[in-house]
UniProtKB/TrEMBL annotation:
<protein>
    <submittedName>
        <fullName>TolB-like protein</fullName>
    </submittedName>
</protein>
<keyword id="KW-0472">Membrane</keyword>
<feature type="transmembrane region" description="Helical">
    <location>
        <begin position="163"/>
        <end position="184"/>
    </location>
</feature>
<dbReference type="InterPro" id="IPR011990">
    <property type="entry name" value="TPR-like_helical_dom_sf"/>
</dbReference>
<feature type="compositionally biased region" description="Basic and acidic residues">
    <location>
        <begin position="130"/>
        <end position="147"/>
    </location>
</feature>
<feature type="region of interest" description="Disordered">
    <location>
        <begin position="127"/>
        <end position="155"/>
    </location>
</feature>
<keyword id="KW-1133">Transmembrane helix</keyword>
<keyword id="KW-0812">Transmembrane</keyword>
Length: 591
């Protein structure tokens, strides 16, 4: 029961340390506070340090060392891990106070521009002053403050309490509408024709136990799945298809059941293609009801299933590979039909599939020129003519980069907060040599959707190739753990991570398991690794392959590597491996 007597509405004093500690415990115990373990450690650390009178030491370097275990060499200018985690905690706190903490007496926030928490009583709250920019990295904070966070539309909880009930209701409705508009960069649009997007029916999950909690989790898991799948732009979710039209209501059915045995819980899920009844994906998910609460289990399992079946490279898009030969031949295709074709192209990456998906996107955008996602994909397709030109056989030209830049700019003008659009902006700027803009876009993309493993992995690669190896390689590893694809692309990234930290044995292992056998850049990286390892016979085999399959690359090594590795020290480490293997590397101009 609330103890209103402790609050003096005319007092300028803030909450006591005891009240703040109790509020932190309440927040951390709430099922509505969505933050991972290290985020919870972050919140506890900054609060305890502030209460101990050490708020002046709450800098990115201190937090990275004390909370995230970073080494003394940590550079906050180059590693955004603390800024990213702070952004996630701000969103988690905002959600908590909007959903579960509306009646709480103490408000805890972490204002933008720093990491020092702010404490206030509910009825003492005043409109916060816009914070000064973070002196550690004003560029990133400026980018964040300009509204690139999806949560920017929600009113802070302390302010909301001063508003009348009617006005508060209106603001909450507006916030919900805004959330639908900006979540994941999605735009509200008319439902596309059924032939355009794969449709998925999420069926009722069965329960294999008479225990009430099993039934609750089955219903909750289905609700969470529908909620997460509905946020994706590339599929249509059908919750309750018409009884008489089940055969044609959806292309795929997501089925499952929940089993309990004491404290053990198992969720079984499978994706069935309706056309022929084929099970194209299935998996089990185990949990311990004593270790995690039900809501966390539901959300976590739903997130894993969503990633496995509907994220880029998920089971649905792998099952749609037959579409790759169709787009260029159908004059009435819209842009949505090109999305499965794009992800199928990434798996094969042949001259034919590249030309087909490029033609598909070009034709579709003539009919639907306001589709930001398709402009972003087209930008990446153009950019591949530079990144993978030795594999695709495209000539050396400035035109693909110009087309990629124009397409990315068009996408950004339509949906500046869409993570896929920001990913395209990041890559275009990276290959244009504007690393600051590239990493700013990557930071925004990852902050907008940390669950998009392709965004996380690609951002990690750009961080690593820019010389921020520690933070970049952590993201690449995380993307691999979550089955990002094409897998070989990220395995090659892990090979470079190991190579740059001096672990030549691990670098060779990662490079050899990468399935990019036809990609000349992968063979060039392995050649450098083998040279550094002193394995001359094996290096000779790689060199012969390159001379046979990509002779132009062997005469243009320095330019191609400097396009990818931004730091001269990293470039020279790579060249040293090649020289050790007996490859002549041209000196830089003027050298």
């Amino acid at each position: 029961m609330r103890n209103a007597t402790k609050i003096d509405v005319f007092s300028s004093l803030g909450p006591t340390a005891e009240e703040i500690c109790r509020q932190v415990e309440r927040i951390l115990a709430s099922e509505e506070f969505h933050a991972p373990k290290r985020g919870r450690n972050f919140l506890e650390f900054v609060v305890s340090e502030t209460l101990a009178g050490r708020s002046g030491f709450l800098k990115a370097f201190t937090i990275a060392n004390m909370v995230f275990g970073r080494e003394a060499s940590f550079d906050p200018q180059n590693d955004p891990v603390v800024r990213i985690e702070a952004g996630r905690i701000r969103k988690a706190l905002e959600r908590y106070y909007l959903v579960a903490g509306q009646a709480d007496d103490v408000i805890i926030t972490v204002p933008k521009g720093g990491y020092v928490p702010h404490f206030e009583y509910t009825r003492d709250a005043s409109v916060p002053v816009r914070p000064e920019k973070d002196p550690e990295n004003p560029r990133i904070e400026e980018f964040e403050d300009q509204g690139h966070s999806p949560q920017a539309t929600s009113p802070p909880a302390p302010i909301a309490r001063h508003l009348g009930t009617g006005l508060l209701a209106i603001l909450l409705l507006l916030a919900l509408a805004s959330a639908f508009l900006v979540a994941g960069g999605a735009r509200i649009r008319p439902l596309p024709p059924k032939a355009s997007l794969p449709t998925v029916a999420v069926e009722v999950f069965a329960e294999s136990s008479s225990v009430d909690s099993s039934s609750d989790i089955a219903r909750g898991l289905r609700d969470d799945l529908i909620g997460q799948l509905a946020q994706l732009d590339d599929i249509v979710v059908v919750a309750d298809p018409p009884m008489g039209d089940r055969a044609t209501a959806a292309d795929y059915a997501l089925q499952g059941n929940v089993q309990t045995d004491g404290s053990r819980l198992r969720s079984v899920a499978r994706l069935v293609r309706r056309a022929d009844g084929a099970v194209i994906w299935a998996n089990n998910f185990d949990a311990d009801l004593r270790a995690q609460n039900k809501l966390w289990i539901q959300s976590n399992v739903a997130r894993q299933i969503t990633g496995a079946v509907a994220r880029p490279h998920g089971a649905i898009f792998q099952a749609e590979t037959a579409m790759i030969a169709q787009p260029a031949q159908k004059a009435d295709q819209d842009s949505h039909a090109c999305i499965p074709a794009y992800y199928s192209y990434l798996q094969a990456m042949t001259v034919q599939s590249h030309g087909a998906v490029r033609e598909c996107l070009q034709q579709a955008l003539r009919r639907t020129p306001d589709d930001a996602t398709s402009w972003a994909l087209l930008s990446l397709v153009y950019l591949d003519e530079i990144r993978f030109r030795y594999k695709l056989g495209t000539p050396s030209s400035a035109e693909p980069l110009e087309l990629a830049t124009a397409s990315a700019q068009r996408a950004a003008s339509l949906a500046p907060d869409n993570p896929r659009v920001l990913r395209a902006v990041m890559l275009v700027n990276f290959f244009r040599g504007d690393i600051d803009k590239a990493l700013a876009a990557g930071t925004a993309a990852y902050a907008a959707d940390p669950d998009d493993v392709e965004v996380a992995g690609e951002y990690g690669l750009r961080l690593a190739m820019s010389g921020k190896w520690q933070s970049g390689c952590e993201l690449i590893s995380m993307a691999l753990d979550k089955n990002a694809g094409p897998r070989g692309y990220y395995e090659a990234g892990m090979a470079m991570c190991a190579f740059m930290r001096g672990d030549i044995e691990a670098a060779e292992q990662w490079s050899r398991i990468s399935d990019l056998d036809c990609n000349p850049m992968r063979h060039l990286a392995l050649l450098s690794i083998l040279g550094a390892a002193g394995k001359m016979d094996e290096a000779k085999l790689e060199q012969n392959w390159l001379q046979s399959h990509a002779p132009a690359l062997m005469t243009n090594i320095r330019q191609e590597i400097s396009l990818r590795l931004q730091r001269p020290a990293d470039q020279e480490r790579f060249f040293a491996g090649l020289r050790a293997a007996g490859v002549a590397v041209d000196l830089p101009s003027g050298g």
